[in-house]
């Protein structure tokens, strides 16, 4: 095991690489959305979200499909529950903090329409996530077939997003980083830039998670504690950094849409993998995680639905993650 200072150095270095790669990714995916006339909201909820959620989905698939032991398969199940929890609490809180730091208001001229669309996303998530938890509480013979329903639910969500109201675009497209002098870069160059950025994000994210694990060993933390409380924060780092970048550019709709779209992917595709390849029975810690996630999403749904969502409301979402940690520790579930 490398010394502590080297672990911290690699941890910080990989986080910096992820941020720079996300700069290239969001730039490339915006140009792809422009080229295929996807619409700005769908660019965030589908293209950007699918790209940044792909590494976590692959990790979940490998864990549940090829895990050599029940413990390894349970890591995949935990990832399918931990990801949405972090996105609904920490990621949205980071959006609120970044809005404050950038001195940007959340309620813009298009806020009413944006909030309506985001509340619809949270509504989709609530229904699917309740089903996801319910399936994990009971055992029955045909459960593996239910994975197909979760995949179908995501397909329905994509269909609805691509045909829904997209709203006016926020700001101008920055020049493609792989072709900075071209006013109309070729689509192939935008796709290449996005794919290269995704590969870098994937590799750097795996390195980042590995250093989190090494740091836990240095600090004497239990592996279960790392897997449940810390690793999900690391694996959702690309989505969070994308949001920071877009807010810095004044593209608040894209930032929020990216997180809500990633939540929908985490609620469906990794869940389908877990149901296909494991018994999908949730232990007490995962049930607590699911309950806190539901509380967080319901809070977001009410905020967006009522039109009262604010920077302070988003920032306060982190308190629910703190509450989750307190419950886990108090009940000795790690």
Structure report:
With 334 residues, the chain is mostly helical. It is built from twelve helices and no strands. Helix 3 runs antiparallel to helix 12 (318-330) and helix 4 (111-135) packs antiparallel against helix 10 (284-306).
Helix count, DSSP H or I runs of 4 or more residues: 12
Q: In percent, how helical is the residue content?
A: over 70%
Whole-angstrom Rg: 19 Å
Instruction: Give the overall shape.
Output: globular
Low-confidence stretches: none
Average pLDDT figure: 83
Distance between the termini: 24 Å
Helix-strand pattern: HHHHHHHHHHHH
Largest sheet: none
Topology record:
Layout: H1 4-35, H2 40-66, H3 70-102, H4 111-135, H5 147-163, H6 187-219, H7 223-235, H8 237-248, H9 252-277, H10 284-306, H11 311-315, H12 318-330
């Amino acid at each position: 095991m490398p010394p502590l200072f080297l672990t911290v150095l690699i941890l910080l270095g990989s986080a910096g690489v992820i941020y720079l790669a996300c700069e290239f990714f969001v730039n490339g995916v915006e140009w792809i959305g422009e080229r295929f006339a996807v619409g700005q909201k769908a660019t965030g909820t589908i293209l950007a979200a699918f790209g940044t959620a792909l590494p976590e989905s692959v990790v979940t698939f490998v864990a549940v499909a090829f895990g050599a032991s029940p413990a390894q398969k349970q890591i995949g199940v935990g990832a399918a529950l931990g990801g949405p929890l972090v996105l609904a609490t920490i990621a949205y809180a980071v959006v609120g903090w970044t809005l404050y730091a950038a001195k940007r208001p959340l309620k813009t001229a298009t806020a009413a329409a944006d909030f309506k669309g985001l509340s619809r996303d949270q509504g989709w998530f609530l229904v699917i996530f309740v089903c996801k938890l319910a399936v994990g509480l009971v055992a029955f013979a045909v459960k593996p077939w239910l994975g197909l329903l979760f995949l179908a639910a995501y397909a329905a969500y994509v269909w609805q997003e691509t045909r829904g109201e997209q709203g006016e675009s926020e700001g101008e497209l920055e020049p493609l980083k792989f072709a900075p002098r071209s006013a109309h870069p070729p689509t192939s160059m935008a796709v290449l830039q996005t794919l290269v950025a995704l590969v870098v994000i994937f590799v750097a994210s795996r390195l980042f998670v590995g250093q989190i694990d090494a740091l836990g060993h240095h600090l004497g933390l239990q592996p279960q504690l790392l897997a449940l409380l810390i690793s999900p924060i690391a694996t959702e780092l690309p989505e969070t950094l994308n949001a920071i970048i877009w807010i810095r550019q004044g593209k608040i709709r894209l930032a929020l849409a990216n997180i809500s779209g990633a939540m929908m992917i985490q609620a469906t595709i990794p869940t389908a993998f877990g149901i296909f390849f494991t018994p999908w029975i949730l232990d007490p810690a995962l049930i607590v995680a699911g309950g806190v996630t539901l509380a967080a999403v319901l809070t977001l749904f009410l905020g967006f639905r009522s039109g009262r969502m604010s920077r302070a409301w988003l920032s306060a979402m982190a308190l629910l993650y703190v509450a989750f940690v307190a419950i886990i520790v108090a009940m000795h579930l790690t």
